[in-house]
TrEMBL record:
Domain of life the protein comes from: Bacteria
Protein name listed in UniProt: HTH lysR-type domain-containing protein
UniProt KW Methyltransferase keyword: no
PANTHER family noted in UniProt: HTH-TYPE TRANSCRIPTIONAL REGULATOR YBHD (PTHR30419)
Keywords: DNA-binding, Transcription, Transcription regulation
GO terms, molecular function: DNA binding; DNA-binding transcription factor activity
HTH lysR-type domain mapped to chain residues: 1-58
Length: 298
């Protein structure tokens, strides 16, 4: 028996098939099959009923999986305990959504440079759905993103910040309500594929607003510039009032009660860099003024 074999077993159970597990672990399907076969041979029992498509766990397989998860957790705890005893040295691949790039990220990286000089954070940007897939496949160590509605057992989540969604209007605008703003200005929509989009659309419907959409953009900086030039108004997470103030943009409440979205750090539960994840999470949480709350959602 080996850790790799237990990871293969857990991945098949989590993702539902040998092929999906192989993709998640960056292995070939034949490699996954060989690991399961070797585990079955060493235990002397079949772990999957291969008469079904996709194969499903046998009763023995369910028992082995339960114990394998305990072993994997304890195995990862060894590295966590060792890493706690010494400064962290190494790289960490972090994905971030566009609304974080120009506010929480720079301040947090400055703090990390001071507090953890041996830690290198390699940052890439994308929308929450893209980042979640890259975390699942191991392309990213973690992602700072919009909170998923559901999580499998292979993923862990830590809340970092609550962000109020607001109307961002040109400096010279005079409307005091969302209705007045969008009666006088066209709408610059933030990418509708972003996970915050359903919150925005629901509130627009509740307010009876059908804005005149003239542009749809993924870049927060570009939206800020267009609003500042008077091109139109937008609806964005209010991640940093300072960033809006620097461009003299007006912030108008997006109806009552306020609409909030949660951002946090998503990672795999079996990741080997848990100490780095903790360090990065602590710094981002401190920057956002939020305590440590790591949890798994099933």
């Amino acid at each position: 028996m080996s850790i790799r074999q237990f990871r293969a077993l857990e991945a098949i159970s989590e993702y539902g098939s040998f092929a999906a597990a192989a993709k998640a672990l960056n292995l070939t399907q034949s490699a996954i099959s060989m690991q399961v076969a070797a585990l079955e041979e060493s235990l002397g029992v079949p772990l999957f009923d291969r008469q079904h498509r996709p194969p499903r766990l046998t009763r023995a397989g369910t028992v082995v999986l339960r114990h394998a998860r305990v072993i994997l957790s304890q195995y990862n705890d060894i590295f966590d305990a060792l890493s706690e005893a010494r400064p962290y040295h190494g790289s960490f691949r972090l994905g971030v959504i566009p609304t974080i790039l120009t506010n929480l990220l720079p301040l947090s990286l400055m703090r990390l440079r001071e507090e953890e000089p041996g830690l290198t954070v390699n940052v890439s940007s994308g929308l929450s759905g893209e980042l979640m897939r890259e975390v699942e496949t191991g392309e990213l160590d973690a992602a700072l993103m919009h909170k998923p509605t559901t999580l499998g057992t292979a993923l862990s989540w830590r809340d970092i910040a609550q962000q109020r969604v607001v109307v961002v209007a040109p400096p010279e605008s005079t409307g005091e309500t969302p209705q007045e703003i969008f009666e006088r200005h066209p709408y610059i929509r933030f990418n509708r594929s972003a996970w915050v989009a359903p919150l925005v659309e629901t509130r627009l419907s509740e307010l009876g607003i059908s804005p005149d959409t003239r542009a749809e953009i993924q870049s927060i900086e570009a939206i800020h510039l267009l609003v500042g030039l008077g091109f139109g108004a937008s609806i964005l997470p209010d991640v940093s009032t300072e960033s809006f103030a620097r461009t003299s943009l007006r912030i108008v409440p997006f109806g009552e009660p306020p609409v909030y979205r949660t951002v946090g750090i998503l990672s795999r539960t079996d990741m080997a860099k848990k100490n780095a994840r903790r360090i990065i999470g602590d710094v981002f949480a401190a920057t956002a003024g939020r305590p440590n709350t790591l949890k798994k959602d099933g």
